[in-house]
């Protein structure tokens, strides 16, 4: 069972409003042994992740997306920057604002090499910025971000465990200290009782 679990491919959510670009990134990701889900807008990406940007979305669709999201975890999101409605930058901000999604690595793609745009995305929390057309060699840069995210998640879980242990420690020490004080009190009462008995015994011998 453990061997099967390690062979499970990382799941990437690819977001692009251009069908040719979406097909290209899907092919590159699958060639690199990633599991891929593609959507054509930022709002659909949020629906898939369980965050519902559009309140007019039918409840049945939201429930389907939530059920699917529980079954298939997303390990990385790669999104185009220029999209109608919600840009890749807007999607990035939404993901980083979510406490449950902020640790998922996000990669931005764009056909325009604009330094200010690239810096803004990186400052907002993007892990990588690819210039289009995306190449197969770019895919090798994705896995390190996923592994880094998993290590961070594991570290956070360990830290939470240590905090829980330390918070429970005072209760144990207080109970042990109270029990030790009870023992000392019982010993003290026993000593006092012995002191009362001894004089009586001495008096009986003298008489």
UniProtKB/TrEMBL annotation:
The modification 4-aspartylphosphate is found at residue 80. This is Response regulatory domain-containing protein. PROSITE patterns: RESPONSE_REGULATORY. Residues 153-165 have a biased composition (Basic and acidic residues). Coiled coil: none annotated. Residues 153-207 are annotated as: Disordered. Belongs to the ARR family. Type-A subfamily. Functions as a response regulator involved in His-to-Asp phosphorelay signal transduction system. Phosphorylation of the Asp residue in the receiver domain activates the ability of the protein to promote the transcription of target genes. Type-A response regulators seem to act as negative regulators of the cytokinin signaling. GO terms for biological process: cytokinin-activated signaling pathway; phosphorelay signal transduction system. InterPro entries: ARR-like (IPR045279), CheY-like_superfamily (IPR011006), Sig_transdc_resp-reg_receiver (IPR001789). Keywords: Cytokinin signaling pathway, Phosphoprotein, Transcription, Transcription regulation, Two-component regulatory system.
């Amino acid at each position: 069972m453990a061997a099967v679990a390690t062979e499970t491919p990382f799941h990437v959510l690819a977001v692009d409003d251009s069908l040719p670009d979406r097909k290209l990134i899907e092919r590159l990701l699958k060639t690199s042994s990633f599991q891929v889900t593609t959507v054509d807008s930022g709002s659909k990406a949020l629906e898939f992740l369980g965050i519902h940007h559009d309140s007019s979305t039918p409840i049945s669709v939201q429930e389907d997306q939530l059920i699917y999201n529980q079954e298939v975890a997303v390990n990385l999101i790669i999104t185009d920057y220029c999209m109608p409605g919600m840009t890749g930058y807007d999607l990035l901000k939404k993901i980083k604002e979510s406490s449950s999604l902020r640790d998922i690595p996000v990669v931005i793609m764009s056909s325009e090499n604009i330094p200010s745009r690239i810096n803004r995305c990186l400052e907002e929390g993007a892990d990588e910025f690819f210039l289009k057309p995306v190449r197969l060699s770019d895919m090798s840069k994705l896995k390190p971000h996923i592994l880094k995210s998993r290590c961070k998640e594991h570290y956070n879980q360990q830290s939470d465990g240590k905090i829980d242990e330390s918070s429970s420690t005072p209760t144990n020490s207080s109970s042990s200290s109270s029990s030790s004080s009870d023992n000392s009190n019982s010993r003290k009462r026993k000593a006092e009782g012995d002191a009362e008995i001894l004089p009586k015994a001495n008096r009986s011998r003298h008489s």
